[in-house]
Amino acid sequence: MAQTSLRAWRAVACGVLALLAALAAGHLVAALIDVGASPYLAVGNAAIDLTPLPLKDFAVRTFGTHDKQVLLAGMAVVLLGAAALAGLASRRTPWPGTVVIALFGLVGVAAVATRPGLGTVAVLAPLASLVAGVLVFRGLRGRETVASRRSFLIALAGSAVAGVAGQLLASTKDAGASRAAVGPLVPARRAPAIPADADFAKLGTPPFLTPNRDFYRVDTALTVPQVRTEDWSLRISGMVDRERVYRYQDIRGRPLVERTITMTCVSNEVGGPYVSTANFIGVDLADLLREAGVRPGAEQLFSTSVDGWTSGTPVADALDPTRGAMLAIGMNGEPLPLEHGFPARLVIPGLYGYVSATKWVTRLEVTTWQAKQAYWLQRGWGEQAPIKTQSRIDTPKGFETVPAGTLRVAGVAWAQHTGIDQVEVRLDNGPWQRAILSREITVDTWRMWWAELSVTPGAHQISCRAKDKRGYVQTAERAGTVPDGATGWHTISFVAK
User: Fold this and answer.
1) Residue 380 CB neighbours (<10 A)
2) Dmax over Cα atoms in the chain, in whole Å?
3) Which tens digits make up the pLDDT trace of 440-451?
4) Which helix (H) or strand (E) holds 20?
């Protein structure tokens, strides 16, 4: 019997509807098991893990905190295009499309099976995608139905119902209600009050404390993990005398401390935006480690997030009483926002975030550097990651046109756990001029600065450099973010008229 040849648009519709059915089925089953088991997200996470380091750095630099949305949108375009082509290739026989859909399903199975933090049962989600995609495609393309409009509508409606049901089920695990139920966090030891002269916001610097909504976010999570306080625990194991497990109420019930800390991402380019300051509330990480009893020879605190991401911190820094490493549960007077690690995260002053700031932390293993390699260490970043002395010009902006005459220049500088001693600015290649600094709150926070320059009409450049309290002057030598943070003077160009 001769095969029925479909019109092109019907063939494309078969492929696209099969894709939608596969994604909806996978999302529905994942909502019952673990949202991270959704094949679409699992493949996206695998793509992040496999992306070459220079390309990741480009994505963060180009798209900032929207890099994940760009990835998901790009995946959607690729999948839709592939589904359409699979449909076109199956105008005479359903086998080409069947093979393509099955291969997509197997990719999803592999992505879920190899994803840290997901159990074996999680592969049921991509298997559901595979089965649903093949059945819908074969059903729509079958000789008996010849892709009727009615079958299209049934497939579309079924996909919509499955997708909505999956979303509703996933929302029942939303951590938002759990966060709202935490209530006020009252520290036994409060951070010093922030005086009015801690910033020069009226001159163009950021406010000293970064509002939670504006605090930078750089991580590998495609979707924000939803962890309720009643489900969360922290296990401390490895080279310890006593393995310890803490529940959320165990942490909440301890005397809480509040510290003002400036955090910086290692992906921050010279003059970049990935530096922010907040009042964090939590407990001393060193106390928890001492309760477990750290054994001699321990070098690394290997932390794991609920989504499987890992980080390695020098044990000496975590235990250093002068550093004030924290297990934080609050931020700027409220429970941690979901996107910043609720219910709990690490905050260790003076180290770049990739070794000090694990969000949604659920396990701490005391070990050695040789025994385990964390996520970014495997990808070529440095083992030790002290934040480098840096400064930034916030006003005027690059390529801005300003009035000639007296120009006020303002910005920020940071050298966490060392402290900023002075900031200098210079116009074009002229002499360095010392800027006025804001009041220092602690050595673990940034300092604002401003200076006045006399500018003539025309094109100009301004550069800035900082000197820390150890006497180190910020180098002019330009280096990229890999492997342990960018260096160089921030320089902007502008025009005076």
Assistant:
1) 11
2) 88
3) 999 999 999 999
4) helix 8-33
